[in-house]
Structure formats: structure tokens, C-alpha cells
Amino acid sequence: MIELRHVFKKYHTRAGDIPALVDINLQVKRGEIFGVIGKSGAGKSTLIRSVNLLERPDQGEVLIEGKNILTLSAKALCQVRHNIGMIFQHFNLLSSCHVYDNIALPLVLLNYSRKEIQKKVEPLLELTGLTQKKLAYPRQLSGGQKQRVAIARALASHPAILLCDEATSALDLHTTQSILGLLKDINQQFNLTILMITHEMEVVKAVCDRVALLSQGRILELSTMAEFFTRPKTEKAKKLIETLSHRALPEKLLKNKKEQFFEGSVPIWRIYFTGNSAQSPIITALIQRCALEINIFQANVETLKEDTLGIMDVTVKGDPKQLQLGVDYLISQGARVEVLGYV
Ligand SMILES: Nc1ncnc2c1ncn2[C@@H]1O[C@H](COP(=O)(O)OP(=O)(O)O)[C@@H](O)[C@H]1O
Ligand SMILES: [Mg+2]
Question: What is residue 261's three-state secondary structure?
Fold first, then answer.
């Protein structure tokens, strides 16, 4: 549906060239919600803007439904763009137009008749829960409502693809959940392909089927959500996922924690489980089979789109051989173990 092949992009600035995208390869399947996560400056906006050529790559191919759009004429490109909606962090609504006219705008530009426009806009108002607000101006709306208008506008020309650039980053937690719910709905209802970029792990966790981790213009990791948390392929990716997840240890432990083993210390493990690997039997087995003394000090279960992710922080007492046995056992059960330090 969307494919980037060996995409490179540099920005030329007075201070020198900035490599914003370096050899990006990815494929987003039809009907999929695909996330790209990374810190600020990683190249996320440049990547998503390459998909509709708001930003033109220096090298590589951008394929939409199998067609390299870099080689299209201006007119043909225009047509492809009608098939790609986009929403932004700051909504980008026209402040002088009310809700209805904001949503109608792409259709006005396409020269639809007033009647046709009405036929398309009314159901979009319904879909996004804005029927009561159709004559309100953006300044009279909450952030969540503004983003709903932007979503309705993006859907007005019936695109097959929706690009979301930090679409929930300006919203509070509750509103974020409701916008993500709406995106999931329209993904299912219209089999819409969604590419979203974000710096918030909660967002990809809630809605994405697959995710790519971007760092300094490069893809460090590209996998399903479950794999992303339990089996990142490189140390660098592991560290970055950790940072982006903001999963902190309790204050007391953090204060006393050392990076290296010291006399009389025990390791702190963070154990990730997904899917069916139920947690309590595994921990019981760990205690019994590996003769480890385990102290659980925090645990929680998070919901992924298609899966659950359990995260448990424990301290573990045992001799090195038992500890290794424990790690091996956890891995054999599909879990991942990270040593966070020693206390
Ligand atoms: N128009 C531009 N001119 C120069 N540098 C830019 C421009 N846009 C982005 N950059 C730089 O390119 C890098 C990637 O930026 P961006 O794609 O906006 O990252 P992100 O969206 O992940 O924060 C950053 O170092 C940023 O400063
Ligand atoms: Mg950005």
C-alpha cells in the first residue's frame, strides 16, 4: 500500500547538512495501522511528509499502491494526494470557517456541488460526533473536537490512506484515548490504512499493528508490537524503547541502584511477557525450578491492540548459576529479561 525504498533526505543548513532520513525501507500493508516512534528530531515528520511528497526525498522510491510517485507529473501526483489524508499535531484548521466549511474545504477545492458536499459532510459530522457543532468556529472547540474536525476533513475525499503527524501530542490523556478510539473505528469501518508518527509509546501501544523505531534518521527496529517489547533485536533499540516508555523504578530503588554488581547486591530484573505466557505460573516456576528468591516490587499489565503486555520488576536472590538458569527459563517461556542494575 505504502512502500519506502532506500529513501534518503538531507536538509542543507548554514551549519552544514542534516541527514534527516538515511536509507529508510518500510512497507505498510492495506488496512494496517503502522506506527513510527522516535525522539524529537529523529526524522519522523520528514518520513511521514515523504509519503505524500510534502517533503521530496533526495534518493529512493516512494510507492503508493505500487506506483513510484516521485516520477509522476504534477497532475497525476495531485490525484494520488486525494487518496491520502493527513492530520497534524496543531490541527491546521481555518479559523475563519466554521466546522462544516472546514470539513467541506477539500471538496470545494475539487469542485463538488453544494448538494454533493452536503451528502458527504453530514455523515462525517455524524461519524466524528460533531453534528451539534457544525456551525461552531475552531476557537469555540476543545482540542479533541478540533482534531475530530481535522479527521473529518481528512476523510472528506474518501482517501485510502491517512497520515497522522503527532495527532494526539497536543491533547490530554483522556482526549488522546477518544481520538485513538475514533482512528481505530475508521480504520476498521473503511479499511483505511493509517501511518502514524509519535513520540508517545502509549499511542503506538494502543492502536498499532506494527511499529518502526526511528533514531537519527535510521530505522533501528521494525516489528509487530509484541516483538517490539519482548524481542528487540539490538541493544540500542532496547535502550531507546525503554527511554520512550518512561517506565521508572520506585524512588528508593533508583537511589540505591548501581550499574555494576557489588558485594552483597542482588540484580533488579524487568521481565516482559506477552500473550499467553501467564505471569504467576512463570514466577512460581522460577522460584521452584531455579531456586531463586524473588521479590516483586511492581507489576502491571498493559493492553496492546491485539495482545497484552505484562511488565514486572523484581529483585532476585540466587547464585550466578541459578540466576542464569532463571534467565534461560524465562526466555524459553517467551519472556524478555532486562537487568536494570543492582541493589
Ligand atoms: N526544513 C528544515 N530545514 C533544516 N533542518 C530541518 C528541517 N526540517 C527538519 N530538520 C531537521 O531534520 C531532523 C529531523 O527533523 P524532523 O523530521 O522534524 O524530526 P521529528 O519529527 O522526529 O522531530 C532534525 O534534526 C531537524 O532539526
Ligand atoms: Mg515532528
Answer: coil
36: β partners: 197, 212
CB atoms within 10 A of CB 65: 14
| One domain, residues 187 and 40 | yes
CB–CB of 322/290 below 8 Å?
Answer: yes
147-187 pLDDT, tens per residue? 999 999 999 999 999 999 999 998 988 899 999 999 999 99
Q: Is the shortest distance between the CB of 11 and ligand 1 below 6 Å?
A: yes
Same domain assignment for residues 73 and 113: yes
Residue 12 CA: nearest ligand 1 atom is 4
Q: Which of 18, 200, 216 to mutate to test the pocket of ligand 1 (most atoms within 8 A of CB)?
A: 18
Q: Is 213 in the pocket of ligand 1 (CB under 6 A)?
A: no
Give me the domain span that covers residue 213: 2-232
Residue corresponding to grid cell 460526533:
129
Residues 169 and 255 in one domain: no
Q: How confident is the model at residue 32 (pLDDT cuts 50, 70, 90)?
A: very high
Is the C-beta atom of 45 inside 6 A of ligand 1?
yes
Together in a domain, 289 and 227: no
Residues 73 and 165 in one domain: yes
Please give the distance, rounded to the nearest whole angstrom, from the Cα atom of residue 35 to the centre of ligand 2: 13
Question: Is residue 83 in a domain?
Answer: yes
Answer yes or no: do 225 and 263 share one domain. Answer: no
**Model pTM above 0.70:** yes
Domain count, the chain: 2
Ligand minimally distant from the alpha carbon of residue 89: 2
Is residue 38 within 6 Å of ligand 1 at its C-beta? yes
Residue 44 to residue 92: CA distance in whole angstroms: 18
